Amino acid sequence: MRALLVDDERLARNALRRLLSVHDDIEIVGEAADAAAAKASLRALDPDLLFLDIEMPGGDGFSLLQQLEDVPITIFTTAYDSYAVRAFEANALDYLVKPISAERLAASLARARKTFAQLSAVDGDATAREGRPSMLRQIFVRDGERCWIVRLDDIFLMESEGNYTRLLFSGERPLILRSLAAIQERLDPRSFFRANRSQIINLSAIERVEDEVDGRIVVRMRRGIRVEISRRQSSRLKDLLSL
After folding, report:
1. What domain range includes position 163?
2. Which of 1, 33, 79, 132 has CB 3.0 to 4.6 Å from 48, enough for a Cys bridge?
């Protein structure tokens, strides 16, 4: 895995670099000491794994993640355990309190390898198709003081609300400042389907399909949510699902 280290303390970065040196499958591709440099490095280097300090000059780690379209596997690192509850609510892969021990880091990396394998399997060959951007795998969502790192596979419904999109996953319904059309450009069409002008569904989350009298179909999603498929898209979805 290609890793980026983000921490405003040089000694902390050096200590983490030494700990990682014994893990042959981890390649450190860059370092950053503040939010602006971290954002630039993330765009230029596209790491698989991000070690992210929460407090740093130019903005905290949560604000940085909020600016990213596709979020890498993230492990928060900080000297302040008061952030722990918030970090875990964000579904971070792990949370390491400085000074980081070799044993604790090894356990985090074991989880990171498992997540990396899962995300790589989702990627398949979709990210390599010429002429379109790579597919989204994870996104950072912030709703007031609450925040999450959400795998796209866990989102079962997306609904347009003007320039915002509401995401439905695990009982949550936060809004993100991104249009449904912009999100659709980065979705894997093998997994997500445009149901109508305002909704995109996760095909794996369909629990039941019902025929309507006018040729349209209605799908029942997780949590009993009913989604009407437009007449034009109903025909496409029937073909897709071999109905």
Report:
1. 155-241
2. 1
CATH number, domain containing residue 219: 2.40.50.1020
Same structural domain, 119 and 183: no
Comparison of pLDDT for 125 and 34, the residue scoring more: 34
**Are both 164 and 49 inside the same structural domain?**
no
Q: Which pair of structure tokens corresponds to residue 201?
A: 């569904």
Q: How far is CA 228 from CA 132, 147, 167, 205, 215, in A?
A: 28, 30, 17, 15, 11
Single residue among 112, 127, 142 that ends a domain in this structure:
127
* Whether pTM exceeds 0.70: yes
Write b or e for each residue in 175-208: b if 16 or more Cβ atoms lie within 10 A of its Cβ, otherwise e. ebebebeebbebbbeebbbbbbeebbbbbebbee
Strand partners, 96: 77
Contact 199, 157 (CB under 8 A): yes
Mean pLDDT of the chain: 89
Q: Which residue has the tokens 């940085």?
A: 64
Inside any domain, residue 191:
yes
Q: Position of tokens 């009298």?
A: 213
Would the pLDDT of 122 be above 70? no
Domains identified in the chain, total number: 2
CATH number at residue 58: 3.40.50.2300
Task: Confirm if 115 and 93 have CB atoms less than 8 A apart.
Answer: yes
- The string of DSSP letters for 136-183 reads P-EEEEEETTEEEEEEGGG--EEEEETTEEEEEBTTB--EESS-HHHH
Residue 168 lies in a domain: yes
